[in-house]
Every structure is written in C-alpha cells, then in structure tokens.
Write the structure tokens for this entry.
Amino acid sequence: MSEPALLARGVFKSFGGLKAVQDFSLELPVGALRGLIGPNGAGKTTVFNLLTGVYRPDAGEVRLAGAEISGLRPSRIAAMGMARTFQNIRLFGELSVLDNVKLACHVRSRQSLAGAILRSPFSRGEERAIEERAVQLLSLFGLADRAQEQGKNLPYGEQRRLEIARALATTPRVLLLDEPAAGMNPQEKIELRALIRRVREEFGVSILLIEHDMGLVMDICERITVLDHGQVIFVGTPDEVQSDKKVIEAYLGVAEEAPSA
Amino acid sequence: MAFDLTSRARELRPSAAPALARGLTPFALCVAFAVLMQLAVKPAVDAYTARLLLDIGTNIVLAVSLTMVNGFTGQFSMGHAGFLAVGGYVAATVMYYGSLRLWGNAEMAGGMLSSMPIKPQPGRSPFSPGDVLFLCSLVAGGLVSGVFGILVGLPSLRLRGDYLAIVTLGFGEIVRVTIQQTGPVIKDAATARATPWPELFTRVGGSLGFSGPPPYTSLFWAFLAATLTVLVAIRLKRSTFGRAFLSIREDEIASEAMGVNTVRYKVEAFVISAFFAGIAGGLYAHTLGVGLSPQAAGFQKSFDIIIMVVLGGLGSVSGAVIAAVVLTLLPEYLRELSNYRMIVFSLALILMMIFRPQGLLGVRELWDAALWRPIARRFGKGGAG
C-alpha cells in the first residue's frame, strides 16, 4: 500500500486553557479530494495551521508523503510539498499579480545569490522558466490580462483565484484550500467547482478543502471530515454526513421536544 | 506529471558566452562611469562641486544599501551608521597602519584615480600601490561590517517592528561607545611596525577621533562604489531573491507558507546591506576634511540615511538614489537661509509625509511603466499615452 499524501494522527493543540484541537486524525490518500467542515470556531483553520507548521502541535504526528513534518518551519514544509491558501486572503498586495505567482516559484529555485547578481546563464534560464510557468498558471486561472496589476487591486473573487494559482506555483503534493468560495458570487462558485476538479487532475495534487458552502463541498468532495469543538465527530461520504445525527446537532443544535401543535 | 523548474531552466538556459558577456558588461560600465567622473567631470568643475559630487556618491551607497533592508524586506533597521563606522574604522586602520608599516609614512600616495584635491600630475601612473591598498582596505571594511551584520542580524531579526528598531539603534550606540574606549593613534612607523595588528585595531584615537587616514577617496572610488551598489541592488530586486525579500515585507506569514525561509532571507539582506554600508564607511573615512570620529556611528547619522530611504520610497532603488542626491544638495542650497535651513528642511519632509507618505517612488523604479500611468492619465491624451 502506498503512503498517503498527508497523514495526521492524534494531533493536539491548546492555547492556554482553550483546547483548540483534540486528537485530530486525518488520512488524505494520493489524488484524493476531501472536505473539512464544521461550525464556526470548530478549529478548522487551526488544523490547517498545524498541518502547515504555523503552529507546532502539542502532541501527535503529521506526515507528508511519509516524512514527519510536525515541528518544522512552514517554509521547510512548503518546500516538501505542502501549499495553502488563506481564509483571510494574504496576497502580496503591492506586488504585481505576476510577481505574486513568480515569488511562489522561488521555493523550487536552484540559482545562487551570486548567480543572480552576475546574471549567470543558469539564473537567466531559471528566470525565463519562472516567467513562463507563472504566465501559464495565470492563463489557466483566467488572470493573464491582470498580470501587471497590483494584487490588492483585484476584485475579491479574482484574489481568491490568484491565491490558488500562487499556491500551485510552489509545485505542491498537497493543497490546502481555506474557504476558497467565501465572498464569491454564485457564478464564480460554479466556475470554482470546475477549477478545483481541473487542478486535481492536471496537477496531480491531493486536496483538502475547508468550505462553508455545503453545495460545493457535497458536490466535489469524496469524503468529509466533520469537526466540532476541536474534535472530529464524523468521517464519511457526503451522503452519510448529511444524514448523520451528530453532524446535524453540531450545526443546528440539539432538537428540543417539538411543541405540540 | 509534476513540473520540474530546474530541468525547464536548463532547457531555457541561453548559450554561455553571450549571456556571460551580458551579465558582466554592466560591471564594466560601472568602472567606465567612475573613470569618466574622475578624469572628465572632475577637471571640469570647481573643487566645491567636486566635493558635493563625492558626498553624493557616498550617500548613494548608504541610501541604496539601507533600501535593501528597510525597503526590500521591510525590516526597520536604525543602526545603519553602526555598520558605516565599523567599515570606516576597519578600512582606516588597514590603510593608515598599512601605509605606515609598508612605506614608513601615511601620506596620500595614490595615482590619478585617487587624487581628489591634488591636480593629476602628468606622467603619474593611474594606479599606484597605494590604490591597491586602498581597494583592499575598502573591501576589508565591507567584509568585517558584513560579519557584524550576521552577528547582529541572526539574533535580532527574529524580532519585529519596534523591537528590531530598538536593537539596531542599540547596536549603533554600542559601536560608538566601544570606539570611544580605544587608545591613541600611533604616529611613527617604527612603533607601528613593532605593534601586532590586533592591537593596532585598538589604537584608533578614542573619542578624539582618528586623524591620519590618507584622503584617497575620489570621485572614481565614490562612483565606483555607488554604481556597483545600485547595480547589485537592482539585479537582486529583479531576481527571484528580490521577490523573496519583497514578499517578507508584504506578508511574512504568506511568505513562509510559500516556502520562503524568512529568517534566512532577512539575515541575507541585512548582511549584504551591512557590507555596502561598510564600503561607504571606508569612503567616508578617507574623504578629505572628514574627521573620522565615534560620532559616525551615532543615531543622528542613522536617521539621515533613513530619511533618504523613506523620502525616496521604501523599496525603490532609483528613489533612494534621487533622495541621496536631493538630500545632499538641499542643505547646501539652503545654506543662505543659515539658521532657518533646518526648519525648511523639516517642513519639506513633513509635507512629503502628508502628500506622499509612500515616498517619492513608493516601491517602484523610475523606469516602471506603472509609475507613470497615473501621471499620463492626469495629463490626458496629450501626455505620453
């Protein structure tokens, strides 16, 4: 059996007295597309921060393609093949759209500082390759004509797309998407659905998706992990999730006795 | 199939010879420009103008080097003068005691390229042994300053914002106070020869200042350093490293998530910046009429450099150059206003902060099309379009 793209086992994290994440486990097989859902404050983004190294887990292990990554710097984890987008968009606002994507290619760069200053033949070749790659990604995401604009000047939906393009520029194995549909209009959401599917096929990445738009999650995810109060309360297919009593309680609260009509 | 940047880079690599030539030509142009300044411009202008030009050159090195830290990576360093002083004192020690030990005196013995006050004499070689020693002393000053950059940067660049500013400010003060504790300068060659080098570095005049370094700094050296600093800064900014630096300033968390080791790149930028500040220190120490003193490391000097960087636009190399030129000339032109000139100077800065807080050019360069777009728009169709 091959190693899962991403594996988390028994991950704990507390902030002072707040147990943000307790005994979180997840297995993301190679090429899978999974959802991570839960009510507001359930700890979804904290899980992303634990997986990407922004926070260090108090206990537990996280493996990326078999290699232990918990406790490493986020940049090291990114170099090993983890990329993410942010719930509250974090673009490099002053930089051009093109440079946002080109920067993300840096992690695969092999040129030296001296090579860059002297403009060695290899560094020239690499800059060309980075430019070519960035332009390709921007056209795939329909942002090619925006290349020279500043990141901060894009409309919201395009900023979200740019974040995904930027994450893919790091050539990841695993892509973590944190609410990519937030703030998008219905038309953009439909396009996003197709885009995520396409990204998985063309880039061969395994995707973990946090999303509040249930239509989107139920439609594209094969399996879904449900989080509530920092704990995994259910793992299953979209159909199973929708009919599970615990999940419904977590979202809607415990049903009281129906008032007699 | 996963994309492999390195193999694609090899496919797109241009053929070696022309690419190398294109890579190195600008360096040759820097040397040519510096020679031109010395041999063509200097004889054509009076001594006062030549001296202003020289100060402009040194200030360009200082402003552009600080741009790499405060502008590119967005880390607010306030101890740039500390690196200036380290480089200046190291270079002055190497040059002064080196001359004393090699030639028995520390007179200025440079060739045509080094002569600043003295008119070049016909038949004098363009490059003398003194010039070679001067070049070595500048590089030594830069390297030692760069090492100090590692020592200060590694622990302190983990701090952010105000804390980093305080630590770097403290560094400058430490350098200043340390230099004040040094011993008197040795004047005669015999004693200098008998004293080991490590001790010579402690005999740099204390709070009285280091008098004696021969005035080698000329328009050639100042503009060689200035053009090389600008070239390196621009090439860095336009490379993948420059994007890494700028991404740190834009959003450190996102930068890390994209695989940029933010601590490593902050230290790298800091060290490169310290290296060039050290070179500027060497130029400063050997400028005629400048008395090298511990005050060179003081925060007043650091502020002067910060003002240039902020005025030019944080992150803009050409902006820093323009600001260095303007802020070197402005106090001179305001000299007639005598005591009021500092008021006018401050007012100009305050107005700048109100009407263009991002600085003259922001993060952009003079030649960026995006810089001119709003201006062209304002002047309508009649403008550049």
